[in-house]
Amino acid sequence: MKTTACNEKGTALVITLMLLLILTAIGIYAISISTTEMNIAVQSKVGTATLNSADSGANVGIDWIPNVFTAPFTATLADQSNYSVTSRATGAMTIRPGFGANFRFADFEVTSQGQSPPQFAAQRGVQTVVNYGPVPVGTMY
Question: What are phi and psi of 81, to 5 degrees?
């Protein structure tokens, strides 16, 4: 014959509830980690798209030198990010070693601002200095 103490009744229920509580906490932690990782992946993708759009604008500005854009030139890319590019001549034409006195080089500054796709809020800037030349000047005698 079995003998049980009165204070042992319901211990299985308490142990089961404790295990359920621990498993629920582990599940909530796993969901929290996966949500955080998804946010990190989205932010990385948006940051890359924004940097690429700013870089695209800088490349457009460099390709169009010696033309100068005092008003911003804006374009939208396939992923709906966009860029705005301006350029300016930074100073007088200079002589560089290895070239005759009848050749000069001009410095240009190209500034590009990249904007993320409309559903996100990110902005990135790229600023480049371009040395353009040699440009023949003078009478070439």
Answer: -80, 160
List the pLDDT tens digit at each of the 141 positions of the chain. 566 556 667 888 999 999 999 999 999 999 999 999 999 999 999 999 999 999 999 999 999 998 888 899 999 999 899 999 999 998 878 888 888 878 889 999 999 999 998 888 899 999 999 989 888 887 666
Separation of alpha carbons 136 and 141, rounded Å: 12
Strands 103-115, 82-89: pairing kind: antiparallel
3-class SS of residue 32: helix
Structural domain spans, the chain: 6-136
The contacts of residue 122 (CB under 8 Å, 6+ apart) are: 46, 47, 50, 115, 116
Determine the Cα–Cα distance for residues 125 and 137; give it in Å rounded to an integer: 34
- pTM of the complete model: 0.72
Q: What SS3 state is found at 119? A: coil
Burial class (CB in 10 A: 0-12, 13-18, 19+), 132: middle
Instruction: Return the closest-CA partner of residue 74 out of 50, 51, 52, 54.
Output: 54
